Amino acid sequence: MVPMTLTFLGTGTSMGVPVAGGFGRETPSTDPRDQRWRTSAWVRTAHTSVVIDAGPEFRLQTLRAGIRRIDALLITHEHTDHVGGLDDLRPFNYTQRAPIPVLCHPRTEAHIRRRFDYMFEPDKTPGSVDMAFMPVGPTRIGDLEIRPVPVIHGNLDILGFRINDLGYVTDASELDDEAIGLLAGCDTLVLNGLRWEPEHPTHFTIPQAVEVARSIGARRTWLVHMSTPVRHADTDRRLPEGIRLAYDQLTVSVGGPSASP
Ligand SMILES: [Zn+2]
Ligand SMILES: [Zn+2]
């Protein structure tokens, strides 16, 4: 398989970590790994650059990671922590001089068309955000084979993605047999784990994520979309071999001869 690099642009839950106002009771952690922007990722090979989700920190995330080109944007679903930064695709339109291909669920496309209606008006201002929605199904972007994976997020059907040897699932509360089958055999898996307890109607807890990760059996699983009480150092120590908490700006290799860490 083509060597691929995954950078975690953000690993936090919907309000980010720490939350604005701190709920007045959180003691902020001084560990930089406990500063989590909204969950997003950058997947790239020598030839192809794909971003998954564009939440409220999208602009900052692209600057921090040094993203210069986006060959496609994959959107898991329409919650604000995953689409709130779509306006900041604009500079990529400027430099690439083309619409950005976008892969998402048809309901998510309808939501984006409604919410960001000014981007789709026939007489919109020149230089506005320009997205080109792709048909939902397996597709190839450069040297990346991308397959949508159906994910259950409470009462919402959303998408995960299989990208070559990478499985990417966020905001899941359940994965059915079809999803497990599409993720089987992946080298690296990204999976959401909100908190240790209690259970949540729309997100895996960390123990649930560990159970799912074991059933998929990737070489390495990285947990994302964590809430404030999840402290990196304590939590990482409690996780079994092969399953670790991701943190913002962590970059890992996927597949290829020198997969690490
Ligand atoms: Zn989310
Ligand atoms: Zn969500």
Give a written overview of the molecule.
The protein is α/β, with parallel strands linked by helices. It has helices at 58-65, 80-83, 90-96, 106-115, 177-183, 206-216, 232-238, and strands spanning 4-10, 40-44, 49-52, 72-74, 100-103, 131-133, 139-141, 144-153, 156-163, 166-168, 188-192, 220-224, 243-245, 251-254. The chain is built from seven helices and 14 strands. It has a single domain, classed as 4-Layer Sandwich (Metallo-beta-lactamase, Chain A). It is globular, with a radius of gyration of 17 Å. The strands form two sheets. A seven-stranded mixed β-sheet has the order 6-5-4-3-2-1-14. The chain has a seven-stranded mixed β-sheet with strand order 7-8-9-10-11-12-13. The structure holds zinc ion (2 copies). One zinc ion binds next to loops.
SSE map:
Layout: E1 4-10, E2 40-44, E3 49-52, H1 58-65, E4 72-74, H2 80-83, H3 90-96, E5 100-103, H4 106-115, E6 131-133, E7 139-141, E8 144-153, E9 156-163, E10 166-168, H5 177-183, E11 188-192, H6 206-216, E12 220-224, H7 232-238, E13 243-245, E14 251-254
Parallel strand pairs: 3-4, 4-5, 5-6, 10-11, 11-12, 12-13
Antiparallel strand pairs: 1-2, 1-14, 2-3, 7-8, 8-9, 9-10
Keywords:
single chain; alpha/beta; seven-stranded mixed sheet; 7 helices; binds zinc ion; 261 residues; Metallo-beta-lactamase, Chain A; 21% helix
**Strand order within the widest sheet?**
6-5-4-3-2-1-14
The chain-level mean pLDDT equals 94
Low-confidence segments: none
Straight-line N-to-C gap: 17 Å
Radius of gyration: 17 Å
- Would you count the extended β strands for me? 14
CATH class value: Alpha Beta
Q: What is the quaternary state of this protein?
A: single chain
Give the helices and strands as they follow along the chain: EEEHEHHEHEEEEEHEHEHEE
